[in-house]
Amino acid sequence: MTKVARLAVAAQAAAQQGQFEDMYHRLFETQEQWGEAQESHAALFRDFAADPTTEERVRFEAALQD
Questions:
Q1: 3-state class of 66 per DSSP?
Q2: Which superkingdom, per the lineage (predicted)?
Q3: What is the CA radius of gyration of the chain?
Q4: How many secondary structure helices (H) and strands (E) does the chain include?
C-alpha cells in the first residue's frame, strides 16, 4: 500500500470514530517526520489514534483492517 493510501485509510478510520479533525492536525503537524521518507510510517499513524489500551484504539485498528 502506498503512503498516500495509508494516510487515506488512517484518516477514514479516524473519521469513523469522529476524530478526523484531530488526525488531520496530527498528520499536518508531523509531516516533516514522514512526508519525504521512503519507508512506511504505518506504526506512527497508528500511534496517533489513541492510547493502545483503549477501546477507541481497538476500533481504529479494526477500521484499518477493513
A1: coil
A2: Bacteria
A3: 11
A4: 5, 0
Dist. CA 65–CA 53, nearest whole Å: 18
CA atoms within a 13 Å half-sphere pointing along the CA-CB vector of 61:
11
| DSSP sequence for 7-48 | HHHHHHHHHHTT-HHHHHHHHHHTHHHHSS-SS--HHHHHHH
Entry pTM: 0.61
Confidence class for position 24, pLDDT limits 50, 70, 90? confident
Cell of 36: 519525504
Q: Are 44 and 33 in contact (CB under 8 A)?
A: yes
Instruction: Say what the pLDDT of residue 26 is.
Output: 85
Domain that holds residue 35: 3-65
Tally of structural domains, the chain: 1
